[in-house]
Amino acid sequence: EQPNILVKDQAGVRTLSINRADRLNAVNAATLLELTAELQQADADPSVRVVVLTGEGRGFCAGQDLGDVSGQGLSFTEHLHQTFNPLIRTMRGLNKPVISAVNGVAAGAGASLALAGDIRLWATSAVFVEVFSNIALIPDSGSTWFLPRLVGFNRAFELMALADKVKADEGLRLGLCEAVYPDETFRADVQAYAERLAARPANALKLTKQALNAGLNGTLDDALNLEADLQQLAGDHWEHLEGVTAFKEKRPANFTKK
Ligand code: T3D
Prior knowledge:
2-enoyl-CoA Hydratase, Chain A, domain 1, 4-stranded mixed β-sheet
């Protein structure tokens, strides 16, 4: 039987690819648990500096597999708490940057996965759709938190209520992604982007992500206090000395040395 998730390592970049192409990478409970476990493993593995989440074939992720509602027996609430929610929390809580590489359609909880990346890169054929209302469900897996922060309440409600498809050019305009790359070169472009990120100071990025995550929920006062604490951790780390030394020596900093 084919694995639900393909795992590839290249130059400090771990790519996790959902491998259910015949159904546009719609996910069942097993796939969600495996994906969460893979993210946790990537976090614990010192050779991994950046994680890329993508999909095989022409889909990124079509959300819940409607033909395999294997949370059978579970309530919707329990199913979300056991499958999608831990995945989204793990992505956002990961100590390493996570790139959502949206190679094709991202629908329902797949749209939430697209939004949950720290960096969102889309292929020209990417399509984003908050499809939930087509089956009279509400957006879940974090969409109600992510989307209004990006596009405001009104546009978020419109996209959710009408389930309109957002194509790549509009996704870029709306701020749903950071960059769009041609389909033909997408994987190579994502890898090149990820390698650039992998060369950045890992400890500083970890702390930056922590501060941004906290900042989205807190006050300015909270942010100033947290920055002061985290800056100590950054400043005490060897990366900081390397960055300052490299600046003075007019050479590029080497943040990947041990
Ligand atoms: O606790 C809970 O369970 C609640 C959690 C909910 C989380 C959710 O994600 S709810 C939303 C679930 N997802 C959907 O409703 C999306 C359904 N799919 C679509 O609307 C469309 O397929 C797309 C807009 C995503 C793409 O359309 P298109 O025209 O590009 O492709 P297609 O022809 O519709 O799909 C291609 C194949 O993928 C097709 O199979 P076939 O006919 O070739 O054998 C289709 O059935 C399959 N597929 C697509 N999405 C799903 C799926 N199979 C199972 N589950 C899917 N979600």
